[in-house]
Amino acid sequence: MRSTMAVNTKLISLLFLLATVSSVFSSSFSDSDSDSDLINELVSLRSNSESGVIHLDDHGISKFLTSASTPRPYSILVFFDATQLHSKNELRLQELRREFGIVSASFLANNNNNGSNRNKLFFCEIEFSQAQSSFQLFGVNALPHIRLVSPLISNLRDESGQMDQSDYSRLAESMAEFVEQRTKLTVGPIQRPPLLSKPQIGIIVALIVISTPFIIKRILKGETLIHDRRLWLSGAIFVYFFSVAGTMHNIIRKMPMFIQDRNDPNKLVFFYQGSGMQLGAEGFAVGFLYTVVGLLLAFVTNVLVRVKNLNAQRLIMLLALFVSFWAVKKVVYLDNWKTGYGIHPYWPSSWR
Amino acid sequence: MAALESPQPGTTSAMRHAFGNVLSVLILVLIGVLAFSIRLFSVIKYESVIHEFDPYFNYRVTQFLSKNGIYEFWNWFDDRTWYPLGRVIGGTVYPGLTLTAGTIWWVLNSINIPLSVETVCVFTAPVFSAFASWATYLLTKEVKGSGAGLAAAALLAMVPSYISRSVAGSYDNEAVAIFALIYTFYLYIKTLNTGSLFYATLNAIAYFYMVCSWGGYTFIINLIPMHVLLCIVTGRYSPRLYIAYAPLVVLGTLLAALVPVVGFNAVLTSEHFASFLVFIIIHVVALVYYIKGILSPKMFKVAVTLVVSIGLVVCFLVVAILVALVASSPTGGWSGRSLSLLDPTYASKYIPIIASVSEHQPPTWPSYFMDINVLAFLVPAGIIACFSPLSDASSFVVLYIVMSVYFSGVMVRLMLVLAPAACIMSGIALSQAFDVFTGSIKYQLGGSSNSTDDAEDTSTSNAPKDDASASKTDKGEEIVKERSSKKGKKKEREPADKPSVKSKIKKKALVLPLEASIVALLLLIMLGAFYVIHCVWAAAEAYSAPSIVLTSQSRDGLHVFDDFRESYAWLSHNTDVDDKVASWWDYGYQTTAMANRTVIVDNNTWNNTHIATVGTAMSSPEKAAWEIFNSLDVKYVLVVFGGLIGYPSDDINKFLWMVRIGGGVFPHIKEADYLRDGQYRIDSEATPTMLNCLMYKLSYYRFVETDGKAYDRVRRTEIGKKNFKLTHFEEVFTSHHWMVRIYKLKPARNRIRGRSKKKTSSGSKSSKSAKKNPWV
């Protein structure tokens, strides 16, 4: 799951040494003036950035974290991002980054009146390609990674501020809890941007209000799409197919359509043995077999009986019977193969 | 079905009906016997014993009820569980099952049939599944005639999904609830077909029984409004619909509020709001129809704008109020389980205690084949049959199958709600197919000489709906019917019946080729036979194990593992009556019911923190665990261990959930500490945290003495740490096959010196431990 990045150990140790030296060095010369300068700079950076997440690079990290004296007057929550990994969906980097922005925006909005708290915590992000040495400085070699650098921490490799997987499992809400727990600042209720902006909602409501009388009129007359039985019928059949295919299982468990064979990478596995799990294609295949038999039966009993030509009837019916028989047989075979159950009848003992 | 396959050509139709009715009753009796007896495998193969976990609680409640009477039961505060909190039983259980079994026991005893409470409890479920199949007959008969009804009842009598919850001994809410569910639906459709207030009242009472029995009643109170809405939207509103719905909402909600566990939830939670919304809509619509009836078409057009605008205003107001109410409650007024039905990924993200239960997992396709078997093939045909022609009743069963099949896709336990719908649909499909095929065969074997006569005959037998023709209405007939519905049921039948029969006669006889029909019939019979074989197998092998007594078949014969009862008996004989026993929540109900000892947590998982405390104790090292348990007054700790005989659902396999649930409340328990590279293992590669936690130690203490190698048969590996001593616990009992191990907490005396030393030495550490362990 986790992707590791190349780590240049030599460079790390050098940087690490440099960082410690510089932090020790600078701490002795720190004063409150430079603190407020840093804060002012951060505030201006924040006001320029979208949702208050400051984009830092190596230079920024050294300026605000490594070279600033401890205790720093602020905490920094760093989100480690890597554009090159955005394509890997299982890392959920973009989603987490979005949630991170929401936490930041909520923090700012909820602490609007409280200037001192507002400037005690800054949300930052660093991007791998622009700040590789900072990644090494933090000792980050796996993503997703979110780290809180509290005022007292001088050694950036100290992982005590790391946000666990459980802390962002519930996205913005749990991130906010983490922040509140660690910094004793209040993030407050998460303010997600509404799905639709206010004018859009207004337009939609207006459209609905205007169109309701017309819709009701048509309903009373009985000539809308919803009066079409074929629509309902196909909808019902589709939901049935969708469910017996185990699609919900595939969505909840995020199952792929097929996987690669472990022994032979060129071969694809479409059917997974073992009843607790199924692959996407497998589900749809069996769902299709489940559905097709019933549809053929219904076709024969409802449509075919009305056909006048006896030979056509005979041919189609035998074909339908054959397909149904094959489908049932196939499902029974697949089920026995997948679950390993030995279903057997019970004969009276005298018959044996 | 059989009744309709063999109509005697010579006799009059009255005779045929009488014969058919007698045969139907006979078949229904046989179906009842089948439903009852197929569920007896558990008694025959094992013994007459209550199964699993929850049934033990229900059994204990029933015992209490039969001993102390209903008022005591209503006010029962149980101090034997959730120590030190206790639990108000009367107000937190669905009393339907208990009251039913208690009543049966009382009636039997008062007519001098001295059955024990346990026997009554064991056989409640099979009896009610016979009732359920009769209810299915009634329901399907209302929809598509008695032929389909009989087929559906026979299918339901042995559908594996339902068997899994209603074998003898499985004394759980679902046992009576499925009957109540089907019966409520039947009465709703009956009311819909007849427009009779009598059935509407019965319907509300049946709904009340359902509310008493099972939390699944919310399915009814959402499905029926949905159907009503569907009828209104598709222009099928009728006074019958109003009579079927309005009394149900008013009476049903009032009655539901009488059940303590539901109470004001019946009007306050979002699960019920849909019914109120539809209640308002149906009144608006009824008003529109009423005005339409008394005004001329021209006047109506003027009026409709007025009424529609007023109605819209009212609707918007109510919607606004509902939205405000919903928004004001934290989860939007929805309970976690309902939410995870709407958003299937909800539970897995947010509520580990719901996600941890195996019956809340989404099913894969083999689950459908296991649980409804060949019905899965027949349902689509049934759906199509319901659309030709579409009536109010058949649209309801279509809606029922669609909703239940979707919900079953989210949670495997809801397969139980799907099963009756699948049986009804398959019954309809089978009956239709048999009608067509046998009709074709009979028509062609009868020869061409009396073809006109036979054509008429087949056309009537093609339509087994004659008996319940009220349900079989084309659009044109409906208008006739609505007018006549005021005059009463009997008269209404005739005008509805005549046009349909006439139109059928006019048509050409609908037949299929003879030999193909015979082949199709044979294949259908084979399909049915396969279903029977599968169901009997499932009932005998898959679902009959009581899980309190285990057996295994090996070369040298049958082995019986009765360790659970052995150890519960040990507890009840060798410990003080007020001793507290800690175990994982799975065994809470059994301990209280069989050992009669107080437990800390049980299967009613109402307090997550309490469960997390026990989870934390199990995942902590010995000393910390001792402190937690001691602070809860625990005397004994019970663990279930399957490593010796290969019993897979033991505590070591459930342990990760204990860690997860514990860690959810006490963050110092981290799942990662128990995993080596993301893998859960107990061999030499296991993490030190894992090897030192209480659960590991209690499970594997002295395990090496059994075979010298300490080979765990479930995990198929040698354990990581073999020789160790316990410091804070002592072993007091290990059952015959080591499945249950009971430990006693060592008295605190031994530790006084160590503790006093520590107090002086570490001031900073004590604050840390206070944070870790909330109970000290």
From TrEMBL, chain A:
Domain of life: Eukaryota
UniProt xrefs under InterPro entries: OligosaccharylTrfase_OST3/OST6 (IPR021149)
Transmembrane segments: 201-220, 232-252, 284-305, 312-328
GO cellular component annotations of the record: endoplasmic reticulum membrane
Membrane topology qualifier: Multi-pass membrane protein
UniProt feature coiled coil, ranges: none
Cell location: Endoplasmic reticulum membrane
Subunit structure: Component of the oligosaccharyltransferase (OST) complex.
Biological role: Subunit of the oligosaccharyl transferase (OST) complex that catalyzes the initial transfer of a defined glycan (Glc(3)Man(9)GlcNAc(2) in eukaryotes) from the lipid carrier dolichol-pyrophosphate to an asparagine residue within an Asn-X-Ser/Thr consensus motif in nascent polypeptide chains, the first step in protein N-glycosylation. N-glycosylation occurs cotranslationally and the complex associates with the Sec61 complex at the channel-forming translocon complex that mediates protein translocation across the endoplasmic reticulum (ER). All subunits are required for a maximal enzyme activity.
The name this protein goes by in its record: Dolichyl-diphosphooligosaccharide--protein glycosyltransferase subunit 3B
Source organism: Cardamine amara subsp. amara
Source taxonomy: Eukaryota, Viridiplantae, Streptophyta, Embryophyta, Tracheophyta
TrEMBL record, chain B:
GO cellular component, one term: endoplasmic reticulum membrane
Enzyme Commission code: 2.4.99.18
Pathway: Protein modification; protein glycosylation
Oligosaccharyl transferase STT3 N-terminal domain ranges (all copies): 22-425
Enzyme class: transferase
Subcellular location: Endoplasmic reticulum membrane
Topology relative to the membrane: Multi-pass membrane protein
Any one Gene Ontology molecular-function term assigned to this protein's record: dolichyl-diphosphooligosaccharide-protein glycotransferase activity
Region (Disordered): 447-500, 751-776
Record field: compositional bias (Basic residues): 751-760
Reactions catalysed: a di-trans,poly-cis-dolichyl diphosphooligosaccharide + L-asparaginyl-[protein] = N(4)-(oligosaccharide-(1->4)-N-acetyl-beta-D-glucosaminyl-(1->4)-N-acetyl-beta-D-glucosaminyl)-L-asparaginyl-[protein] + a di-trans,poly-cis-dolichyl diphosphate + H(+)
Cofactor(s) in the UniProt record: Mn(2+); Mg(2+)
Keyword terms, alphabetized: Endoplasmic reticulum, Glycoprotein, Glycosyltransferase, Magnesium, Manganese, Membrane, Metal-binding, Transferase, Transmembrane, Transmembrane helix
Broad class of the protein's primary localization: endoplasmic reticulum
Pfam families (alphabetical): STT3, STT3-PglB_core
Comp. bias (Basic and acidic residues): 464-500
InterPro entries tied to this protein: Oligo_trans_STT3, STT3-PglB_core, STT3_N
Polar residues composition-biased segments: 447-463
Domain STT3/PglB/AglB core: 578-637
TM segment ranges: 21-44, 88-108, 120-139, 145-163, 175-200, 206-230, 242-267, 273-291, 303-327, 368-387, 394-412, 510-533
PANTHER family per the UniProt record, alphabetical: DOLICHYL-DIPHOSPHOOLIGOSACCHARIDE--PROTEIN GLYCOSYLTRANSFERASE SUBUNIT, DOLICHYL-DIPHOSPHOOLIGOSACCHARIDE--PROTEIN GLYCOSYLTRANSFERASE SUBUNIT STT3A
Stated family: Belongs to the STT3 family.
Quaternary context: Component of the oligosaccharyltransferase (OST) complex.
Name of the protein in question: dolichyl-diphosphooligosaccharide--protein glycotransferase
Species of the source: Cardamine amara subsp. amara
